[in-house]
């Protein structure tokens, strides 16, 4: 036993004399850091790195089986999910690991921003970090394409459509993106190359650079109101602070990093185990059009914004906003390289973080249920509520049938069932007069198609009479002039008792 | 610094000699006269010049090398429009009843060996009541999602962001900036063919200039426009 230990030590020395690695690594791990930076708030960077390691590992294992060809990718994923022992768990870890990595990278970025750590002399560290964020998002997008299912196929179409709206260069750029004129085998191959070779290569090199810069410049001290960053004396002051309050990073700070990284890895494994792998959904057959494509969670907010932008603004916003956002992130440390680091002295920074977080949160939430999308099967699957048919005339009931037949329900809900693209119609007659309803139905407008071509006069009359019976507990709306002239229309105003019309 | 100290300590324990106790450097290790001459500054500047020359040569080779690399990389973007398109038959006229709009599919003419089922493309064929034909791309003009035809309300609806089109492909409502993309078609005897091969995007509209709908056919191909 003792002999074994001695032999082990000898081997270690043999390697160490030649490589000097243990000494270098120990030196780096023990680099002094201000004791205030040994904080639970400073653990996100190392957790992101741990997740990257997990992604590399699970990714390599998946690549052993995955087939990056348009004809075999989908079946090979099914094979991993169902036929390989623990294949489903590996895929689940890779998928959830990706979501966790994006979340942790974003938290890391927010923390660094709020703690002013991007200021002098750490501007370059921040800039490299911005590229790391972009590369992480690039991994998520290309990874989603490799899950070559319906969402991936039509998602590529969305990417191509956005690219195609670029002036002048649009067409050739679409062909570059897709590797040809359509989404096909060449498209998947190039996204595989991006996901497996190009982006990981860049990501790992830049992580190395990021880490090198952290070691070279030291970990950001805990910001204090009044500890002003000035280029002239920051490095001297930081050295003084580190000298008087410095502790070795390992073990004094590193134990927190290790605990947090372990917790995150456990959380990924728990999600993978309990929630399972993500997809694949249906086969990427372009002739199956009964599908409602949606991007993965990290990109849902973009999907939502694209639904709300007015058509005339869309191209401009799509082409101008991303460069502005990325440019803003890159320029931030150059513009604000000096001054206060503490968040209590930087109200604009705190407001910006709050605003961006709330915006992203709201749009992501909207993206999960997409109220702007018609519910394609509502007209045939959601019956008109029975109470809207009680005590109605035959014409009104016929109108209810027209309402369903003409797919009005796909965009308009009754009793909260149906599409949310248009307004709910439970009380439509309380807000619109008969004439207004007819005009709206026949001519459309305000985001509603015109139904003049799709409705016969009889159908229009029936539909309108049904809609006029929907006014809740209120009186139906009527033209101000109707009150003074004798009632002679097809639809007499209901008495103001608040009761539904009883015929 | 601590690293080299550590090294020395380890080296000492390993049994190798310590620097301070070593004999003077043997004469064989002090460099020959010839080597010393070659290390003179004048010789050094000659080598510096040669280094610059070598770097320049490498740059030149790099440029030559870049040509095939860029050519390969940009290949898909360099293709002529006509290379990506061909006339494809999508069915017989009789299989599209007058007054109806039906889904047809074809194999993309530019398909490759590994395309699998993605080589199949769908399109909407409208045989209007007046006998004319229109063939629409399934891709929404907004972001390319597949639009669905609803015969009862005579609308194409997009599931992604709620774009809606009338039966003739014109824009009805929602985010699309224009009507559905229209394929050029021709009827030879009983066979209906379209000029296809490219994923329709807004770039096509940019090419069409002021024309409201896309022409996906070669310019000057007059006889095909008789539908």
Secondary-structure element order of chain A, N to C: HHEHHHHHHHHEHHHHHHHHH
Q: Roughly how many Å apart are the termini of chain B?
A: 85 Å
In total, the number of domains of chain B comes to 2
State the strand order across the main sheet of chain A: 1-2
Percent of sequence in beta strands of chain B: 15-25%
For the record, the CATH architecture of the largest domain in chain A stands as Up-down Bundle
Low-confidence stretches of chain B are 10-17, 206-227
CATH topology of the largest domain in chain B: Rieske Iron-sulfur Protein
* Assembly form of the protein: heterodimer
Percentage of β-strand residues of chain A: under 5%
- The level of helicity of chain A is 55-70%
Rg of chain B computed from alpha carbons, rounded to a whole number of angstroms: 35 Å
In one word, what is the shape of chain B?
Answer: rod-shaped
- The strand count of chain A comes to 2
How would you sum up this structure, described in words?
The complex is a heterodimer of chains A (503) and B (227). With 503 residues, chain A is mostly helical. Chain A has helices spanning 2-19, 21-29, 44-63, 73-82, 87-114, 123-146, 150-164, 170-178, 185-217, 234-245, 249-275, 300-308, 311-335, 347-369, 378-381, 394-405, 428-431, 434-443, 457-468; strands at 32-34, 246-248. Chain A folds into two domains: 35-366, Cytochrome Bc1 Complex, Chain C (Up-down Bundle); 377-503, Cytochrome Bc1 Complex, Chain D, domain 2. Chain A contains 19 helices and two strands. Chain A has a two-stranded antiparallel sheet. In chain A, helix 3 crosses helix 11. Chain A is elongated. Helix content of chain B is 28%, strand content 23%. Chain B contains five helices and eleven strands, in the order H-H-H-H-E-E-E-E-E-E-E-E-E-E-E-H. In chain B, the strands form three sheets. Chain B has a four-stranded antiparallel sheet, with no helix packed on it. In chain B, strands 5-6-7-8 form a four-stranded antiparallel sheet, with no helix packed on it. A three-stranded antiparallel sheet of chain B has the order 1-11-10, with no helix packed on it. The model of chain B is unreliable at 10-17 and 206-227 (pLDDT under 50). Classes of the chains: A mainly alpha (503), B alpha+beta (227). At the A-B interface, helix 1, helix 2, helix 7, helix 8 and helix 9 of A face helix 1, helix 4, strand 3 and helix 5 of B.
